[in-house]
Amino acid sequence: MLRIDFVTIFPRMFDPLLAEGVIARGIKQNLLEVKAWDLRDYASDRHRSTDDEAYGGGPGMVMLAEPVLRCVESLRVAGRGSASPTLAPHIILTSPQGRAFTQDVAKELSSHEWLVFLCGRYEGFDERIRETLQPDEISVGDFVVSGGELPAMLMADAVGRMIEGVVGNSGSVAEDSFFNGLLDYPHYTRPLELRGMRVPDILLSGHHENIRKWRKEQALRRTRELRPDLLEKADLDDEAQEILRRLENETP
Fold first, then answer.
1. Active-site residue identified among 33, 123, 137, 175
2. Whether residue 163 sits in one domain with residue 190
3. Of 23, 46, 64, 92, which is the most buried if we count CB atoms within 10 A?
4. Domain shared by 188 and 87, yes or no
């Protein structure tokens, strides 16, 4: 079982994640244990403050360190009560300055038994949170959103579907875009013909080996056209390399 905790000032933002979709399915199957912690419950004043003005001036507010540290200490105690007494959480800080989140990072995170996402707001966290917790800082892209909740949910969904049994058909995960370093091949379903566009005949042939080769070629073709940078680090077998050579020799 994978345990996932979210530390946030907006715990209700996670209600849809816990009620519908892949994460909810994993919870129902007892493959995932997920909880959102309200950071305001760990504030030290009657106003339940979780942020304050920055020392040195400047615009925006900064997340206070003490509520975050208190919350992490509490969830560590609670988590160990339902797991191994020595189990330590892998703490993730959603941050635009962190390492880029990729499918490989999702696979890496899925190998942990316990993940804790710290969801920042405003101008970010007091630096002493980083110094104390030494979190794994991860970014979902070179852009800024209002808080870390959406990036945390995105990462949790990507990681959760890696857990065996969460997705009904494990083959669906193995064939996802980026799982093997390539974009996915095109998919078709009913009807056979739609507005003059017909399903490729090879998919109707029943010849599984030819279909496999066609899909592999389409994945390579799409990756070459849309994300050629992925091919530089993809682990391609001899068949894939031969297909690529043929594609490069095609007349434009």
1. 123
2. no
3. 92
4. no
Single residue among 149, 170, 191 that ends a domain in this structure? 170
C-alpha–C-alpha distance, residues 186 and 206, integer Å: 17
Alpha-carbon span 173 to 103, nearest angstrom: 11
* CA atoms lying within 13 Å on the CB side of residue 226: 12
* 24/130 Cα distance (integer angstroms): 30
Q: Are residues 166 and 109 in the same domain?
A: yes
Residue from 243, 224, 129 nearest 183 by CA: 224
Catalytic residue status for 33 = no
Catalytic, 96? Answer yes
Q: What SS3 state is found at 107?
A: helix
* Statement to judge: residues 20 and 143 lie in one domain: yes
Cα separation, 17 vs 239, whole angstroms: 40
One of 96, 113, 215, 217 is an active-site residue; which one?
Answer: 96
Three-class secondary structure assignment of 63-91: ECHHHHHHHHHHHHHHHHHCCCCCCCCEE
Using one digit for the tens of pLDDT, what is the confidence trace for 21-77?
Answer: 999 999 999 999 999 999 999 998 999 999 999 999 988 999 999 999 999 999 998
Q: Do 125 and 62 lie in a common domain?
A: yes
